[in-house]
Amino acid sequence: MSGRYIVVFKDSVSLDDVKKYADEVNANGGEVGNHFDTLLKGFSATIPESYLQQLQSYQGSVIDYIEPDSTVTIQ
């Protein structure tokens, strides 16, 4: 089963490296959606559980955080 996530990289990571990780997600059965490069460096993606743990292992070194993608509303 796949889930939809937002993956945000540390400021020190180059946009070329962000693209490499996005390509890895696609190569491992995921599907990258939007790319972010203005306020945040990262992307949204549907990531299979089988690859999510691998991606989470990069947290702390190159990835700042990974969180579930969801709709945010204000009242």
TrEMBL record:
Q: Which Pfam families match?
A: Inhibitor_I9 (PF05922)
**Cleavable signal peptide:** none
Q: Which residues form the Inhibitor I9 domain?
A: 4-74
Q: Which residues form a coiled coil?
A: none
**What GO biological process terms does the UniProt entry carry, in alphabetical order?**
vacuole fusion, non-autophagic
Where does the source fall among the domains of life? Answer: Eukaryota
What InterPro entries does the annotation carry? Answer: PBI_I9, S8pro/Inhibitor_I9, S8pro/Inhibitor_I9_sf
Q: Which Gene Ontology terms cover its molecular function?
A: endopeptidase inhibitor activity
Belongs to which family?
A: Belongs to the protease inhibitor I9 family.
* PANTHER family attached to this UniProt entry: PROTEASE B INHIBITOR 2
Q: What is this protein called?
A: Inhibitor I9 domain-containing protein
Organism equals Dichomitus squalens
